[in-house]
Design brief:
The protein is α+β, with helices and mostly antiparallel strands. It folds into 2 domains: 4-25 and 106-181, Ribosome-recycling factor (Topoisomerase I, Chain A, domain 4, Orthogonal Bundle); 34-101, Gyrase A, domain 2 (2-Layer Sandwich). It has 4 helices and 6 strands. It has a 4-stranded antiparallel sheet with strand order 3-4-6-5, with helices on one face. Strands 1-2 form a two-stranded antiparallel ribbon. It is elongated and about 70 Å long. The relative contact order is 0.17.
């Protein structure tokens, strides 16, 4: 019999992993990728809107991004938002698009980005442990659960946490390898 507590914990942990993967996508390796701009938002008529919803983003020759806004009047604002996002690239606005040359990464920049990936991994692990703690608290407080079942569920919760922490470590190691090889 699986506990509703464990099911909810697993869903929350999967959400944490998904968020972690999205954070990793925003860390660029040596190649240009449209996902580099996933977190860049622009004030579009009073609404903070992701660039990828306001413009077509294409990759040229693996080293250049071209951002072509659907509304040409937004070129300046998008250019400014990309520059302000601190992505380690310099956008260049043209009449109806923005070009971003993605330079090859220096060794120092690679190390810096690897640290950033590690920081995201640590945050994800903290979130996973918080989910585990909250789930354990709920299980312990529920007086309707027999003691042996409660112990079984606490053990299952720990195993679930271990599984997801291992997944975070695997994803972080893969990203670090991508960064260092680039």
């Amino acid at each position: 019999m699986a506990s509703e507590y464990l099911d909810n914990a697993e869903l929350a942990m999967e959400e944490t992993i998904e968020n972690f993967e999205n954070n990793l996508k925003t860390i660029r390796t040596g190649r240009a990728s449209a996902s580099m701009l996933d977190r860049v938002k622009v004030d579009y008529y009073g609404e903070m809107t992701p660039v990828n919803q306001m413009a077509k983003i294409s990759v040229l020759e693996g080293t250049q991004l071209v951002v072509k806004p659907y509304d040409r009047s937004m070129v300046k604002q998008i250019n400014h938002a990309i520059a302000a996002a601190n992505l380690g690239v310099t956008p260049q606005a043209e009449a109806d698009c923005i070009r971003i040359n993605v330079p090859p990464l220096t060794t120092d920049r690679r190390k810096q980005l690897a640290k950033e990936a590690k920081k995201y991994a640590d945050e994800a692990k903290v979130n996973l442990r918080n989910i585990r703690r909250n789930t354990n608290d709920k299980i312990k407080k529920d007086k309707e659960i027999p003691e042996d079942t409660s112990k079984e569920w606490l053990d299952s919760c720990q195993k679930l946490t271990d599984k997801f922490v291992k997944k975070v470590d695997t994803l972080a190691a893969k990203k670090e390898n991508d960064l260092m090889e680039g």
